[in-house]
Amino acid sequence: MQVSINVNGEQRSHEVEDRTLLVHYLRDTCGLTGTNIGCDTTSCGACTVLLDGESVKSCTVLAAQADGHEVTTIEGLADGETLHPMQRAFQREHGLQCGFCTPGMVMAAVSLVAENPNPTEADVRSGLEGNLCRCTGYHNIVQAVLAAVREKSGATE
């Protein structure tokens, strides 16, 4: 079947099998390997992307379901060489270790802050509970999200 998906601001049209998962479409067809495959069961969140601005686990969405929609991957957040505020905060606050979960975590955090522009620490922890990190213990991830919120609001620490 033919799909036409706006990926990171670029219209892409490809022939795919009906059963092609969005994560495989992004990685294998579009060559956007920042979206990771961790579990294929929605358990880890490594494949989180934005579908029309809302976070989804792309291992549970068919490419056909994204037909006619807008998808943003981790590669689409930066503005050229300028990192997105959430990406900068993860870097600055050491919100990563091995980096495997980081793209999905950042995408989920971007969606969370879009829905709740002033989250508490508890809100961040709750909002990211569908994304697993096997390395950090989450403290620095939560601090990174809160730092990005402060940066966006112009608040200083």
Automatic annotation (TrEMBL):
Pfam family, one: Fer2
Keyword Signal: no
Domain 2Fe-2S ferredoxin-type positions: 1-77
Protein's UniProt keywords contain Manganese: no
UniProt cross-references to SUPFAM superfamilies, sorted A to Z: 2Fe-2S ferredoxin-like (SSF54292), CO dehydrogenase ISP C-domain like (SSF47741)
Top-rank lineage group of the source organism: Bacteria
InterPro entries: 2Fe-2S-bd (IPR002888), 2Fe-2S-bd_dom_sf (IPR036884), 2Fe-2S_ferredoxin-like_sf (IPR036010), 2Fe-2S_ferredoxin-type (IPR001041), Beta-grasp_dom_sf (IPR012675), Diverse_Oxidoreductases (IPR051452)
Keywords from the UniProt entry: 2Fe-2S, Iron, Iron-sulfur, Metal-binding, Oxidoreductase
Protein name, UniProt field: (2Fe-2S)-binding protein
